Amino acid sequence: MSQGRTLTFNIFRYDPQVPDDKPKMVKYHLEEAPGMTVFIALNMLREQQDPSLQFDFVCRAGICGSCAMVINGYPTLACRTLTSKYPKGEITLMPLPGFELIGDLSVNTGKFMRELAERLKLWLHPKSDEVDIHRIEAPMAPEEAARLYELERCVECGVCVSACATKQMRDTFVGAVGMMKIARFELDSRDARSVEDFYHVIGNQDGVFGCMTLLGCQDNCPKDLPHMQQIAYLRRKMATALV
Amino acid sequence: MKLIYTDSLVVGAGLAGLRVAIASKERGLDTLVLSLIPAKRSHSAAAQGGMQASLGNTVKGMGDDEDVHFQDTVKGSDWGCDQEVARMFAHCAPKAVRELANWGVPWTRVTKGPRQVVVNAEKVTIEEAEEAHGLINARDFGGTKKWRTCYTADGTGHSLLYAVDNKAISLDIPVHERVEALALIHDGKRCHGVVARCLITGELRAYVAKSTTIATGGYGRIYEVSTNAIICEGIGQALALETGVATLGNMEAVQFHPTAIVPVGILTTEGCRGDGGLLRDKDGHRFMPDYEPEKKELASRDVVSRRMTEHMRKGKGVDSPYGPHLWLDITLLGRKHVETNLREVKEICENFLGIDPAKDWIPVRPTQHYSMGGIRTDAKGQSPQLKGLFSVGEAACWDMHGFNRLGGNSLAETVVGGMIIGKYVADFCEENTLEIDTALAERFVAQVRDEIDGLVEGQGSESAYELKREMQRIMMDYVGIFRNGPELTKAVEELEALLIRSRNLGLKCKKRHANPELVEALRVKRMLKVALTVACGAEARTESRGAHAREDYPQRNDKEWLNRTLSSWPSSDATRPQLDYEQLDVMKMELPPGYRGYGINNAIAHPDTETREKQIVEILSNLGEDADRHERQHALMPFEVPESLREKNERLHDKPLGNRQQLGEESK
Fold it and tell me: Which residues, if any, are the signal sequence (chain B) (predicted)?
C-alpha cells in the first residue's frame, strides 16, 4: 500500500440542466491514504474541494451496483476500486456510456433497468398463483436452486451494457443483463413460460442474434457472471426453438 | 404546487416498503412508492445471511415451531419486545418464506443423506431425511435453539429484494426514484402524505394519500463507522419526529454487529460463525468459550460484541493503524464452503482487504449495525398518535426486537411485517376517504421551500459536512457499545450545540436542482434531532438491557425499566426531545421476564413476575391434558393476525411417521 502519494484525478464534469454548460475534464489533486478507494476519494473531493460534484454510491461494499463508472478506460464498480491499483497515481473517471446522464459521474441506470424488466417481463411467471402458503412448500432439486442463484447474482450495475459494442450501435439491444435474466427464468422449473415465449422476446436482432460476441460483458462483469456461456446457451436454445 | 395523489403512499423501496406496496396493489388500491435510489439498490440487498422462519425441514431444525422461534426472539430482546407482535411475527414467518418461493427466490434446498458440517470447531456428519430432500434449508445463527435461518447462499437479501421488486414491477407499481421525502403533511391527528423533493430537478411535490407508510430503514449513519449503506441516515424517523405528534420508540436500542471488517466497517455475515467460524485474539486463542462456555461464538449479537470489546480492553486485541481488532477465522470451513456458501464474504475480503479468507484470518471489530428503535407503531403498524401514518421494517418500532435483535430476524421482519402490516394498510385505505386539503399541503410545501431558500440564499457559515462528522464522532465515542452517565451527558450537550449550529448552515454550491451539498444540509439538521433522541434516551435509561449496556448500571432493572422509551419533539425551537415511557405489562406476557442465559443472572425482578408465573401454571393446569400447544398458547396470550394468515403452518414432523429416524440424525 503506497502512502503519501499525491493522486491526480481527471473527472468528467457536465451539468445538462445548466444552460450553456459544456462537457469538460477537470483535474483534482488529493493526498492518498492507506486503503483508499475511489469511493473514499470522491467523497473527500466533494467535501473539501468541490461540493457540486455528482456521483452515486449506496452500499459502498460492492453489493448494490450503484457506482459503476469508467475508471482509466474500464467500466467497473468505483466503491471497491483501490487507488493503489494505479501505479502512476493518475485516475481518469468518466460516466458510464449508454445511459441517460444526470450529471458528472451520475447516470440513470435505474430507469434503464426498470424499462428493461417491463419490456422483457423479467419476473417469475409461476405455473399457478394459487399456492397454499400454509402447507409444506413444493420441493426443488438442490442443484437447480444453486444454479439459479449463480445466475441471479447480477447487481444491475450496467457495466455489461456500457462494455457492449453492439449496444453502443443498436440502442434497442437488450444487452448481457437482459439475456442473463432471461436465461435465469428459462432455467427455473417454477416458470410457466415455454421456449417459444422466450423466443418472441429475444429471438431476434435485439436479443441473442444481435450479439457480436466481442464479450466486453464477460470481461468486465464485477460479479464474474458467465455471460459467454449463457448467451451461447440461449442462442442454441432459440435457434432450435422453432424447428 | 405540484400535487400527486394516491391511495397508498409508501416511502422507501426496500423489502418492507415494496411488500406493503404489493399488498395494497393486490387489493386494487392506487399505490405509489418513493425512493432515494432505484429499488433494487436498497440496503435490504446487503443482508447476507438469511431470514428466520421455523420450517423445521433440516435435521438440526427438527422440533422447531412458532413457540421456539417466539421464545428465542423474546429472550433475544431481553424482554424488551412486544410479545404479541413477536407472536404475530413467528406465526407468519414460514408463510412469508413459502410465498417468496413462488415469487422466484431460489432458496437453498436440503439434500438428503449425509453431509459434513462444522459445529463447535469439530467436523460433524449430519444425515438429512429422505422426505426433506428439496425442501427449504436452514443454517445456524446466534441466539437460536434450532437451525432456523433460511438462506440463498450468502446473498439472501439480494435474492429477496430482486424477487419482491420483480413482483412489484409485474404488478405495475410505480416507483418514483431519486425522490426524497422531507416533511409529513398532517393536521395533528391524521397524516395526509409527504412533501418530497426530486433529487434530479429539485422540484418540490406534495404527495397526498390515504395512508403513508414509512419504510426508510434505520439510522446507522448517525455513527461514524456503520455496516449500513450510506443512505441509512434516519430521515424517516426524523419525518415522524418533526410532526411533534408522532413518537419514536426505544431509540437508544442500537445494535453493534460483532464482525465488520476493519477499517471500512463492511459486514461479514453472522453465517460465518453460524457455519462454524471462530473468533480469535492476538495470540490466536479462541476466547469466546472463556466468556460464554455454552453459546460461545453463537451467543446473541449484543453479548458477543461486548465480550469482544472486553477482551480488547484487556489488551488481547491485534494492534493496527486503525486501532485494535480481533480475528474471524473461517479457514476451518474449507475452500469449497467459503467459495459457495460464503462467496460475498470472499469477494469483500479480496476487494477491500486483499486477503483470501479460505486461508487467511479476517480482521474484524464490533460495528454499528442495526436500529431496534424507530417510529412507534401499534401491532397493526400504525402510529398511535397520527392516524394514517404507518411504518414497517427497520424504520419502525413495531417492536418485535426490544433491546436486541437476533440475526436473521431483520430480513424476516421486512417481509413478514410487510405482509401483515400491508394488509392492515389496505384495510385502512378501504375504510377511509382521501382528504385533499390543498391549503394544508401548500403550507407544508411552503415550509420546505422556505427552508431550502434559507440554505441557498442565506448567509449561513456552518458546513453540513463538518457538523455531520462531529455528530458521528460524538455518537461513536459516547453512545457506543458500553455507555456511562458522564459520557452520555457530554454527548447530549455536544449534540445540542451542533443542533443550534445547524440553524446557521451555509452552502457553497447554490444550485436548486441536483445539488449534493443541499441534500447533505437538509439531512444533517434532521439527523441531529434523531441522534439526540438516541443519546437522551440512553442517558435517561439507568439500567442495562440488551444492546443498551450501562457501565454505571450493569443490571437489567425490570422493577423500574420494563418499559419502552417514547421520544417526541416538543417544538421547532426545542433542542432536546421530550421523553415519555410506555409500561410493558408483565401480567399479559406469555413469557414473563427471566434469565437470558448469558453471564451472571443479576436482573432486578419486576414485582408482577412471580404472580404472573404462578398464574401461568394455573391457567395451563386448568386446560387439561389434551390441550395442544396452540390452545395452551391462546390461553396465555391471544394475538390477532389478518384472517388470511391465521391458518396453522404445516411441517414435516407434523406428519405421522413410523420411525423418527427417518427424519435424519447426527453423528460425530
Answer: none
Task: Please name the fold of domain A6-106.
Answer: Ubiquitin-like (UB roll) (3.10.20)
Instruction: Determine whether the interchain pair B169/A102 forms a contact, defined as Cβ–Cβ distance below 8 Å.
Output: no
Q: What is the ipTM of this complex?
A: 0.97
**Contact in structure between B651 and B55 (CB atoms under 8 Å):** yes
Q: What angle do CA B151, B152, B157 make, to 5 degrees?
A: 80
Number of domains within chain B: 3
Looking at B583, B616, B631, the residue that finishes a domain is: B583
**Please, which residues 56-95 of chain B have a Cβ atom closer than 8 Å to chain A?**
95
Domain boundaries, given as residue ranges, for chain A: 6-106, 109-130+139-242
Residue A66: its chain B contacts at CB < 8 A? 37-38, 41
Please check whether residues B479 and B527 belong to one and the same domain. Answer: yes
Q: List, for residues A110-137, the tens digit of each pLDDT value.
A: 999 999 999 999 999 999 878 899 999 9
Q: Is pTM, for the whole model, over 0.90?
A: yes
CATH number of the CATH domain containing B360: 3.90.700.10
Half-sphere exposure in the Cβ direction for B479 (13 Å, CA): 35
Q: Do A52 and B517 touch (CB under 8 A)?
A: yes
Task: Express each pLDDT in B275-321 by its tens digit.
Answer: 999 999 999 999 999 999 999 999 999 999 999 999 999 999 999 88
The CA distance from B287 to the nearest CA of chain A, in Å, is 29
Count the residues in chain B. 668
Joined together, the cell numbers standing for residue A62 give 460492492
Question: How high does pLDDT run on average in chain B?
Answer: 95
Nearest CA of chain B to the CA of A112: how many Å?
Answer: 10
Q: A109-130+139-242: CATH homologous superfamily? A: Alpha-helical ferredoxin (1.10.1060.10)
Q: Inter-chain contact A133–B267, Cβ cutoff 8 Å?
A: no
Range of the domain at B335: 257-368
Cβ atoms within 10 Å, residue B551: 11
Grid cell at residue A104: 458528472
Q: How far is A123 from chain B (nearest CA, A)?
A: 5
Question: Does the CB of B108 have a partner CB in chain A at under 8 Å?
Answer: yes
Question: Which residue in the set B108, B166, B344 is minimally distant from A123, CB to CB?
Answer: B166
Backbone angles phi, psi at B474, to 5 degrees: -60, -45
